[in-house]
Amino acid sequence: MASYIERLNSAIIAKRAPVVVGLDPRKEQLPPGLMESAKSGHSHYSDATATAYERFCFQIIDIVAPLVPAVKPQAAFFEELGPSGSLVLASVIRRAREAGLIVICDAKRGDIGSTAEAYARGYLAGSDRNAAPWSADSLTVNPYLGPDTLQPFVDVAVQREAGLYVLVRTSNPGAAGFQDLIADGQTHYRHVAAAVEQLAQETRGEQTYGAVGAVVGATYPQELAELRAAMPHTHFLIPGYGSQGGTAQDIAAAFDADGLGAIVNSSRGIIFAYNNAKYKDQFAPEQWESAVEAATRDMIADLAEHTPAGALGG
Amino acid sequence: MASYIERLNSAIIAKRAPVVVGLDPRKEQLPPGLMESAKSGHSHYSDATATAYERFCFQIIDIVAPLVPAVKPQAAFFEELGPSGSLVLASVIRRAREAGLIVICDAKRGDIGSTAEAYARGYLAGSDRNAAPWSADSLTVNPYLGPDTLQPFVDVAVQREAGLYVLVRTSNPGAAGFQDLIADGQTHYRHVAAAVEQLAQETRGEQTYGAVGAVVGATYPQELAELRAAMPHTHFLIPGYGSQGGTAQDIAAAFDADGLGAIVNSSRGIIFAYNNAKYKDQFAPEQWESAVEAATRDMIADLAEHTPAGALGG
Predict the structure, then answer these.
(1) Interval A244-268: pLDDT, tens
(2) Does A82 contact B at CB distance below 8 Å?
(3) What region holds the Orotidine 5'-phosphate decarboxylase domain (chains A, B) (predicted)?
(4) Which residues 128-187 on chain B approach chain A with CB closer than 8 angstroms?
(5) Is B280 a catalytic residue?
(6) How many residue pairs bridge chain A and chain B with CB atoms within 8 Å of each other?
């Protein structure tokens, strides 16, 4: 098999799209009919919702698998439903991998010692889909507890040819609150970035990028450019495109000259495109799947036009 | 019903013990016979392990419920097993609440906006056990993403009369890595502490302590004393006692004069006491339940002797 980065880069080049579709099912935004049809056969509301989420995500996977390299399920929306949601998260990940997609599980886990290792073993399947019950290719992790707490995640990732994305600069309006505090002349997130870049270097082998990547929000373009320069061996996962306000121009500096080095996420902007002003006139709610496809194609074209991703695949 | 802090303080005073028993099941340390007997009836190893974890945790709950106010399941060890582990986590929490215990779910979640709210809604049942599928009284959360990302957790906690513990100073050897960086003349964790104390103030009503607490490790006694002074309205959850090296003397400064204001966790030191040098001679592996009870009583006595908890219950 191949390392996470080799598998991811191959898929990005094959699809000519550095795009990850976020699977963030939300009850109140599901397309019409999905909840209603899921209700038959379930006495519990949360079980019916879980079934609706599964069908919704399966359909999205079928639509986007030919177009993009990766999907990113957001664990929170599944866990909100309890164990039946956790079961659906696992089944959605498996379905995506069977469809040939790379799966970035967005669970933002973080803990110490053998506890961190337990999370890593549970989520990081890496190259062997059967190596972990939630069989993700990579996982988002939180660095607050300290550099030593990243190591168990790294060890499992390397062993399983899986990947990690450590939170460095997040996309929320209040990210600056703690991440921008300045110590020793550098922002806090730059200290975290230095530790992540070191792990990326240590895990890259012959590749440009290592198994350890960074989450860097699209909503802070200057920080994105600064971090690309400071982290030449770190692959970026970039949330905040579209619904959160980040544009393709904002993201351009995150890529290397080959159009690699970063993967850009859109969640609501794609999966609930039928609800967006841009697609509302074009597609009726019943045509939500066509809206998903149109929004995905539009995002790929937008990145190809305004970022180095246009160079992908020659 | 009553707020989280009212319910917790009543339980601490009734048991005269500021002790929370950590439910951290680990396959390789389970008492003899548990895995073997769970294997019958399961074709999958992880399902058998989940059943063994459930039985183990249920037995511990039965032993400690008369002695301590609270238990703290560590989500990672359940999630490691996949969806069957998640199901057992939910059942363990329900069993503990039926036994009258306060449940602190140690899941260290953290995310932004509606995603943070989804985690909060999934875990924080608070005073109404049926309000959330994982029906915890309180949840540990990670502040890295910014103060704005704590607010959705706080809103759900207040609405459901539940509690939160925000990571401030963790107990791992490398905690200093990022938490001790100095900005504006203060350590990073002091900046987080200031935000948490404000939330504690805003959520305390007539009580001394608010719905928002802090995780502060027992392994850094000086920081514990410093934070108690800086956070007069913040309840402390203190890991690191026992197996990780923190002593009762190290923790003494975390309490107020009434013996309230903090709850101290022991996990391995209690649940796997039959494996500890101190109890090995006294109890055979088959007597692991007696070792759990002895270790729990010893910890309560130790805290009563060496901390203000001796004043509990008059």
Answers:
(1) 889 999 999 999 999 999 999 999 9
(2) yes
(3) 18-283
(4) 132-134, 142-149, 167, 170-179, 181-184
(5) no
(6) 193
A74 contact residues in B (CB cutoff 8 A): 111, 115
Contacts of range B220-225, beta carbons closer than 8 Å, 24 or more positions apart: B220/B169, B220/B171, B220/B175, B221/B246, B221/B249, B221/B250, B221/B251, B221/B253, B223/B169, B223/B189, B224/B169, B224/B250, B224/B251, B224/B253, B224/B254, B225/B253, B225/B254
B38-57 residues touching A, CB cutoff 8 A: 46
pLDDT category at B244 given cuts 50, 70, 90 is: confident
Angle between helix B288-306 and helix B45-64 axes, rounded to 10 deg = 50
Distance of alpha carbon B23 from alpha carbon B177, whole angstroms = 27
What proportion of chain B, given as a percentage, has pLDDT over 70?
Answer: 100
What pLDDT score was predicted for residue A243? 80
Q: Which domains does chain A have, with CATH numbers?
A: 4-175+213-311 (3.20.20.70)
User: Starting at the edge strand that comes first in sequence, how are the strands of the sheet with B182-183 ordered?
Assistant: A186-187, A182-183, B182-183, B186-187
The verdict on a CB contact (< 8 Å) between B122 and A176 is no
> Distance between CA A146 and CA B48 in Å, rounded?
34
CB-count burial class (<10 Å; 0-12, 13-18, 19+) for B50: buried
B72, B108, B278, B280: the catalytic one is B108
In whole angstroms, give the CA distance from residue A59 to residue B111: 26
Is pLDDT of A74 > 80?
Answer: yes
Cα nearest neighbour of B267 on chain A: A115
Q: Does B24 touch chain A (CB under 8 A)?
A: yes
Give the span between the Cα atoms of A291 and B179, in whole angstroms: 45
- How many whole angstroms separate alpha carbon A110 and alpha carbon B294? 32
Element (H, E) at B248: helix B248-251
Exposure string for A296-310, b = 16+ CB within 10 A, e = fewer: bebbbebbbeebbbe
Q: Which residues of chain B have a CB within 8 Å of the CB of A79?
A: 118-119, 122-123, 134
Q: Are strands A212-216 and B138-141 parallel, antiparallel or unpaired?
A: unpaired
pLDDT in tens, B197-224: 999 999 999 999 999 999 999 998 999 9
> Residue A37 — very low, low, confident or very high, per pLDDT cuts 50/70/90?
confident
Nearest to A123 by CA among A144, A146, A103, A145: A103
Q: In chain B, what's the furthest Cα-to-Cα distance?
A: 60
Could you report the per-residue pLDDT of A111-128, keeping only the tens digit for each? 999 999 999 999 999 999
Contact residues on chain A for B198, CB-CB shorter than 8 A: none
Q: Which residues of B touch A176 (CB under 8 A)?
A: 146
Mean of the per-residue pLDDT values of chain A = 96
The residue in chain B having the minimum alpha-carbon distance to the alpha carbon of residue A120 is B80
The answer for B 221-280 residues in CB contact with A (under 8 A) is none
Chain B contact present for A127, CB below 8 A:
no
Q: Is the pLDDT of residue B314 over 70?
A: no
Task: Pull the structure tokens for residue B135.
Answer: 């029906």
Contact yes or no for B267/B243 (Cβ under 8 A): yes
Please name the member of A76, A109, A121 whose beta carbon is closest to the beta carbon of B118. A76
Residues A57, A146: Cα–Cα separation, whole Å: 34
Amino acid at site A3: S
Element (H, E) at A8: helix A4-15
Rounded to an integer, what distance in angstroms lies between the CA atom of residue A211 and that of residue A201?
9
